[in-house]
Structure formats: structure tokens, C-alpha cells
Amino acid sequence: MLTRKCLDRILVYQPGKPISEVKRELGVERVIKLASNENPLGPSHLAVQAIYDAARQTSVYPDGAGYYLKNKIASLARVKPENIIIGNGSDEIIRMLTLAYVNPGDEVINGDLSFITYRIATDLADGKNIHVPFTRDLRTDLTATLDAVTKRTKIIFIDNPNNPTGTIVDQKEVADFLAKVPRDVVAVFDEAYFEYIEDENYPDMMEYIRSGRENIVILRTFSKIYGLAGLRIGYGIGSPAVIENLNKVRCPFNTSFIAQKAALASLDDPLQIERGIANNEIGKSYLYQELKSLNVEVTPSYGNFILAKFPISGKELFEKLLKKGIIVRPLTGYGLTDYLRVSVGRVDENEIFIDALKELW
Ligand SMILES: Cc1ncc(COP(=O)(O)O)c(C=O)c1O
Q1: Which residues pair with residue 274 across a beta bridge?
Q2: Using a 6 Å cutoff on CB, does residue 234 contact ligand 1?
Q3: Is the pTM of this model over 0.85?
Q4: Does the structure show a pLDDT above 80 at 16?
Q5: I want to staple 245 with a disulfide (CB 3.0 to 4.6 A). Which of 100, 104, 127, 293 is the partner?
């Protein structure tokens, strides 16, 4: 059977190795996963209770559009419910964007070190990926991004902070960029790690939405600090016109009732966020310090993960760590052959990772 031609360009997405798989392969009990930028402290106890409570109501279809969740997010973000779309993870909204806006041959700009899902979603819509090189200090280059815009550009994806480098573009850079970007191009700011950021130069993208800017979409997720990656739920914020277009390509019941309830409950637990930020800051400082003392080059990160450059191949080091029951992320797919991306774990997990590295040195 012949598949669509564009599938030839797509490699199946390689997620971080699941803990259960590594346990099975190695026959060991203790496996720690620092590979997918999850919250090592887990979800809010309120979310867990909401999941139990919702379990009895799974015989009916969910509210496909996520009415209550949209309303709650809208009131917290001071926008309207018409500005919000709920997705099966923000991954799904990335795909909705290319399905809604990209005709075969249209161009989608993303960085050569941007989150890999943008490429796949573009290929799936039979669009053309335009990869703009990152700067030498591993940041999204917004000037070069503007230079890459043509009449066929439909979407620009910017992950801020970027995954896998952890770097950001700041308020001024974004303002200059948005002053020049054509109004018929959708500029997507993927803020999956937003809640971790305390830097005052980080752009306030919501203010653009409130002021009625039409061609901006913000992506956020419950997979990271909220600790709900396993439930698959995220959201997009944009103008009502863009959101209506995304709703046209959304599967009717794209998020589950349980996921919606857990996300709603999570929003009532600011303490869980505080704990997540505190754990991340402590873990990041420890990892920076220890990695530097091992002469490993680290890129300062705004997220809950660290990009580290090693004197040996990242793939080789990944395999060695895996044998010790530690899952990290090699970045060969990005051409970063000497690098690993390591998620910040709990204090004990970070120590196990560093001790393992010291043994391998
Ligand atoms: C930048 C970025 N965007 C989106 C996602 C996907 O998140 P979700 O679990 O909401 O699909 C990730 C996950 O790693 C990410 O790093």
C-alpha cells in the first residue's frame, strides 16, 4: 500500500526510554529517569484526588471542548474562554496548527535546535521546514528568523525556553521581532516550561493576546511543573479567529474527562508549583556545580533540564548510564553528538546521577 509521500521524510519520534522498559531489559529494581523533563515530585495531591473522583464517571464522553478548564485558565490568565483551546498535550496543538495553516509546499520556520515535534508536524502537513541556525550561545536567532520569512511562510515556531538548550529569547528581542513579523504569519511561542521562570526579562506574551494581537499563539502544558505528563493535557492561547480554526481540526473528544479534572484541580494548588520551582533551583545549582567540577560544559538553563557537553560521545555516555539504571537523553537527532540533556530530578536522583558520572570518569 502506498502511503502519503510526506511520510518518507518523517522519522518516528523517539521519546525518553520508559522506566518499565529499562527495568525489564536490565533486570534491576532501581531505575531513575532524567530524560523527559517531567516533575520529579509528581502531581498535586488535589489532582490525584480529582482523578479518583472522576474515575466513576468514565462511561460518558467528556466535554470535548473542556468548558470548565477553559474558563478557569481564561480567568487566571485574564483572557476570554474564546482565546483558549485544550489539547491532548501541547504536542497535539502543534499538530493542529500545521493542519490548520499549512498547505503542501508552504513554509514553516523553526530553529535548527528547536523542539523536534515542529518538524514532524510540518512534514505531516506536507509543508517545508525552514531551519534557522541557532546563535553560537545556543539561542533562537530572531533576526535570522525574520530574514528567513518569505511569501510562503505560514508559521514560525519558537520554544521559549528552548528544548533542548534551555535558553530564552527576552522581552526586547521578542518585541522587536513582533514589530516586523508579517501579520499573516502565525508566531507560536511554546512556553512548556513557563512556570519555572522567574526572570523579569522573560516576555509577557499574554499581554499581546489581551491587547488583541491576532497572529500570536502561546502554548502551555500540564506535563511539566504540574506533573500530569501521563494524562496528556495542554493548552493554546490565541485570538478567537485562530482558536476557531484550530477547533475545526481538533478531534471531537481530544482530552479525557480525567485529564480535564486533574488539570482543573492542579490550578488550585499553588504550593505544588512553589515546591516544583524550589526543587528545580536547588537541583540545577547542584548539577551545575558538580558538572563544572568534572569539566563538563553546561548551558545555563531556564527550564527543568540542563544541556551538558561532554568530552566523549553523548550516545556512548547515555548507554553507560543506562547500564547503571539512569535514563538521560542523547541528542544525536539534533546533531549535538557530544551532548546529553539531563532533567533535574529530586535531590537523591541528582546525586545518583553525579555519583554514576564520577564512577565513569
Ligand atoms: C518545548 C516543548 N513543547 C512541547 C512539549 C510537549 O509537551 P506535551 O506533553 O504538553 O505534549 C515539550 C515536551 O517535552 C516541550 O519540551
Answers
A1: none
A2: yes
A3: yes
A4: no
A5: 100
